[in-house]
Amino acid sequence: MQSAIMLVPLVFALLLQSASPAPEPVSPPIAASVVAKAGTALRLMVWNEVSTRSAKAGDRFLMIVDAPVTIDGRVVIPRGTKAWGEVVSARSSGMVGRAGALETRLLHLDTAGGPVPIAPAPAAVTADKGRNGTLQMVMVTAALTPWGPFARGNNARLKAGHIVEAVLNADLPVASP
After folding, report:
1. What is the DSSP letter of 52?
2. Does domain 35-125+150-177 fall into CATH 2.40.128?
């Protein structure tokens, strides 16, 4: 008799289970893939000063993304993401006011998916202003002073905090949240 009483709740539970259909698992909605296209603008900030006083060809320098990159209201490249540049050539300043020369190139942006190549922004965005006539003025000043031939020029440098306009040089697929 006791075993029959124990079977009643079990049979009742089995009947309820077969009577109501089991809920189907809910699959998350498929998110559209987000891609930061090649040519997407980046605003980078030089982290440490790079100067012809100490830099040499092949030295790498750190920059960080200064402003986040958003696509459709979603941050795809956060502020603080590391980017790297490299010194191509560095010529120290010289006598008679000869200024130093520093040539650099942009390398890549560090992302979770690996490095993504970057390039300078188009020339129209980064046109250098106010440099015309600088060399001529240095030479005239050097010639007019008795110590002119011994005057050294300034070292070329990228100051810490200098803003560099760049673009992605390849598409960057962004993982769904």
Report:
1. T
2. yes
Q: What is the spatial distance between Cα 65 and Cα 71, in angstroms, rounded to a whole number?
A: 16
Asked whether 104 and 86 are in contact (CB, 8 A), the reply is: yes
Cα radius of gyration rounded to whole Å, the chain: 31
- Stated pTM of the model: 0.64
- Segment 124-142, tens digit of pLDDT: 444 443 344 333 334 444 4
d(CA 114, CA 131): 38
Is the four-CA dihedral 151, 155, 156, 159 of positive or negative sign? negative
Secondary structure, 3-state, 99-145: CCEEEEEEEEEEECCEEEEEEECCHHHHCCCCCCCHHHHHHHHHHHC
* pLDDT-based confidence at residue 154 (cuts at 50, 70, 90): confident
